[in-house]
Specification:
Length: about 375
């Protein structure tokens, strides 16, 4: 959408008789209104000054840049090219000059107009991408997250548009791939950088990108292995999950997620010692989350350290205080240890979160059965 403020200095006129003429390869159409850019501070055309051809050219540039969907855009592009045959080159040079002096909005307008006048010059789209990248960095430095997101979206959009018109441009393929690499879109980056390598000439840039693609290849392969191991766990194939995750850990020994799946698989297979060691490794690698402590609680309980199991659950609840599963697990342990008031307190917390949860209902029934009451005031701990 076009910002109305961007075009507030534009008025449309009917072509004067003095300009109703034909130029080579272009015929003026008096029925199509022409955009005219007013001088700064003006709200209408000054009769004393009249209309200069430069005012029409400036108006055309602005409409082409900011209203590419205008119903007369094709006519306006043809007219501007007829008035200024070298306009695309001039716009590029002027855009670079304005960008270098910090006039970002004006530079954007000039580059946009050039890109709509000739979409088969990859450098125009790269210039725009660089400009949006500078805007993004400025916004991030100023902690303006919305402005940063907008600039990045514009950068992605302009490179995509450039590639639509120039799908075999090594310049655009590398720029778009590297941008996605920076943004963490590794699979998109991998695809476009691979396309670049297919057509890029030998040289330092190609060597650097080839090296990064090799790293991406290994990284994506490791991620696929991790996801496959997780999927196998979901399907109940613990042995296969273990084989996959061992392969993953060989190349990613510092990844807590790999150790977590290893511990999960061992725990499901009943090897609680190995599971506990894997989950502790997660903690040693710096990860702290409720799922790890819940798994450690299960292992501790199975290994006969009941108090430690409860301690682990307490820590898990500090990290995720509204987790019904954790609340129920600790409540059942407390109930089994005849800590009825503690169990009731945890039950009440769980009921606030999800009173319809099956575990909550079962806990409520067990608590009533064990104590003969459903109210905390009547409960006496054993």
């Amino acid at each position: 959408m076009t910002d109305k403020d961007t075009l507030q200095d534009i008025v449309f006129i009917t072509l004067p008789d003095s300009l109703r003429q034909e130029q080579e390869d272009f015929t003026f159409n008096p029925d199509i209104p022409l955009p005219v850019q007013l001088s700064e501070g003006q709200t209408s055309i000054d009769p004393a000054q009249g209309i200069r051809i430069e005012m029409i050219a400036a108006g055309l540039i602005k409409i082409i840049a900011h209203q590419p969907e205008n119903s007369h855009s094709e006519y306006y592009r043809a007219m501007l090219t007829a008035l200024q045959p070298d306009v695309v080159k001039e716009l590029q040079l002027a855009g670079i000059a304005k960008a270098n002096t910090g006039e970002s909005d004006f530079a954007e307008e000039l580059f946009l107009a050039a890109s709509y006048l000739n979409a088969h010059i990859p450098e125009i789209f790269v210039n725009l991408s660089v400009l949006y990248g500078q805007q993004a960095r400025t916004a991030m430095d100023a902690d303006q997250h919305d402005a940063y997101d907008k600039a990045i979206e514009s950068q992605i959009a302009v490179l995509r548009r450039g590639l639509e018109h120039n799908p075999l441009s090594e310049l655009l393929l590398s720029e778009f791939g590297l941008l996605n690499l920076f943004l963490g879109n590794d699979e998109i980056a991998y695809d476009y950088l691979n396309e670049y390598l297919k057509i890029a000439p030998e040289g330092e840039k190609r060597d650097l990108i080839a090296s990064r693609v090799q790293e991406l290849t290994e990284q994506l392969e490791n991620e696929r292995t991790l996801h496959e191991a997780f999927d196998e766990m979901q399907l109940g194939n613990e042995e296969q999950a273990l084989r996959l995750i061992e392969s993953f850990i060989e190349n990613n020994s510092k990844s807590w997620s790999g150790w977590f799946i290893k511990g999960w698989a061992h725990r499901r297979l009943g090897d609680y010692e190995s599971a506990q060691k894997a989950f502790i490794t997660c903690l040693e690698l710096g990860e702290q989350n409720a799922d790890i402590y819940n798994e450690l609680s299960i292992c501790a309980l199975e290994l006969g350290t009941r108090d430690l199991a409860k301690d682990y659950l307490e820590i898990a609840l500090e990290l995720d205080s509204e987790n019904v599963k954790l609340l129920s697990n600790l409540a059942f342990l407390s109930l089994q240890d005849e800590q009825f008031n503690k169990a009731y307190e945890l039950l009440e917390r769980a009921k606030v979160v999800d009173p319809a949860d099956p575990a909550v209902k079962h806990l409520q029934e067990e608590l009533a059965k064990r104590t003969g009451t459903e109210t905390e005031d009547d409960i006496i701990d054993g």
